[in-house]
Amino acid sequence: MNLISKLKLFLGGQFGEIITGSKRFAAGDFDYRIPAGSSGELRKLSETLNYMAGEISVKMREAELRRLELEAAFRDMSEAILITDGAGVITRINPRARLLMGVKDFDAEGMRLSGLSGGPELSSAAIKALTSGLPVYFEMEPASFPGTVLSVSASPIIDNGVIGGCVLVARDITGPRKLEAMRRDFVANVSHELKTPLTAIRGCAETLLDGALEDKEHGPGFARSICEQAVRLDKLVDDLLKISYAESGQASLEKAPVELKALAEDISGGMSAILGKKKLSLANLIPAGLSVSADRDKLSQVLINLLDNAAKYDREGGRIEISAAPQEAFVKVSVRDTGPGIPAEHLPRIFERFYRVDKARSRELGGTGLGLSIVKHLVELHGGAVGVESAEGRGSAFWFTLPR
Ligand code: ADP
Q1: Is the pLDDT of residue 38 over 70?
Q2: Phi-psi region of 68 (alpha: psi -120 to 50; beta: other; left: phi over 0)
Q3: In testing the pocket of ligand 1, which one of 334, 352, 361, 372 has its CB within 8 Å of the most ligand atoms?
Q4: Is 303 within 8 Å of 354 (Cβ atoms)?
Q5: So what's the pLDDT on residue 113?
Q6: What is the pTM for the complete model shown?
Q7: What sign results for the dihedral spanned by CA atoms 266, 272, 278, 282?
Q8: Structure confidence at residue 10 (pLDDT)
């Protein structure tokens, strides 16, 4: 009879229960409980083992929950993550990394980094991080997404002083980069726009001070130029304020039903000077009674800008038409002119800030290059859209939609 059998005989069935329980615990069944026996010491041992199993069960559930949380973060985060072993072989890759690195139908885990699109950059960074034990940062454009800029970090995984692998995290910074470029362009454009009238004002003022003030024939011309350039600066600053207000996200709309025909009538009434000067006819073809839900002041600004452009760019003796028609849940308003039209290559960018077909002509006509951009912002603020149909030599029709 061996020792265990002897002990079993000596201690009775309780010992057998403890052995069975220990085996169940060892197999991971922590919900099992050893029945409490009557014998004092063995009862204490059973209770301790049961307590220990309960504690392990709670800890394991917590660890599983943490694992699931990390798994969800790994799966759904917007950053691309790749984990490699010490030899640069991919051990984990999340869906975002699969997408950005062009990994489609096969399992990338087990592949070398160098086998991915953008692999050479990724693997050379991983090698640097694995050999130096220091993180490496760089930017790259993945071949599978040209134009996308990724900011990548490769950090070594160090366990007890030994480098066991590398974590590569790639963040898409295309949007922020574009915004930065737009901001730079905007500052450069504004500076340029301000510089032109300021240079003219300074030139005229210096000429006046140099003696033209006494020149009864030419002096007033310089003073007039100063005044015109100051008006231009004023309009530019005004348009810049309108743009920054519309873009600030703080622009609020005071919506109310606006009868379009009456509004267009009011606005065209204020344009008689320019219409008369260029012998333009203006036809208000909007059907009576057609209304939209809009902020009256902002909608007026939209129509003023479009009508002002139509009058500015139309040929002498031309015709401007304002029309509107319901289109499902929207109303489409169009301003058509018989001017020079816009060549097709300019159409995609025509609503951009400071974009002009003919810079010199726009300036000569007192334009700031911001009118259409303001139109676009204000219409979008209402939940509508803008567009243009135009061809060189065939006039232009600018349109916008607004919810009814
Ligand atoms: P601007 O102050 O220069 O008129 P806008 O933003 O209002 O600025 O217009 C941008 C450019 O679009 C203009 O410079 C002009 O080249 C073109 N454009 C706008 N409206 C018309 C139109 N009705 N006919 C022809 N070209 C136009």
Answers
A1: no
A2: alpha
A3: 372
A4: no
A5: 81
A6: 0.69
A7: positive
A8: 57
